[in-house]
Amino acid sequence: QVQLVESGGGLVQAGGSLRLACAASGRTFSDYSMAWFRQAPRKEREFVATMNWSGTVTDYARSVKGRFTISRDNAKNTVYLDMTNLKPEDTAVYFCAARLRVIISRHPTEYDYWGQGTQVTVSS
């Protein structure tokens, strides 16, 4: 079992930045590929970014590429999402997820564990 707890969400103006963190506990953190997803009101959960266990492979949604950066610190059992140049359309609840696989994935159904989410609101 893995427990995931997100933090760092909040209200920010368009063009601003936020850093989200997801702290993991339970199993060996480095066994997992990690990802961030988001869900806006009345929309399906969508992929944002993912990183493999070692941090050597990443993938980003087209809508955030160049603005968001995923990173991880296996010594701290934490994955981060640095978000810059935020836009109102980035407003959503952001979730981190863990997948006990070497290969990364964009599909939420392929993740084994989820955090409770953290709200990000970008005002125009």
Summarize the structure.
With 124 residues, this protein is mostly beta strands. The chain has no helices and eleven strands. It starts with a strand and ends with a strand.
Please describe what this structure looks like.
The chain has no helices and eleven strands. By secondary structure, it is an all-beta fold. The radius of gyration is 13 Å and the shape is globular.
Query: Between the first and last Cα atoms, what is the distance in angstroms?
Result: 40 Å
Report the helical percentage.
under 10%
Structural class: mainly beta
Most strands sheet: 7 strands, mixed
How much of the residues is beta strand, in percent?
Answer: over 45%
What's the helix-strand series?
A: EEEEEEEEEEE
The low-confidence parts are none
Rg, alpha carbons: 13 Å
Give a topology summary.
Blueprint: E1 3-7, E2 10-13, E3 18-25, E4 33-39, E5 46-51, E6 58-60, E7 68-73, E8 78-83, E9 92-99, E10 113-114, E11 118-123
Parallel strand pairs: 2-11
Antiparallel strand pairs: 1-3, 3-8, 4-5, 4-9, 5-6, 7-8, 9-10, 9-11
From the structure above, extract its key features.
124 residues; mainly beta; seven-stranded mixed β-sheet; 0% helix
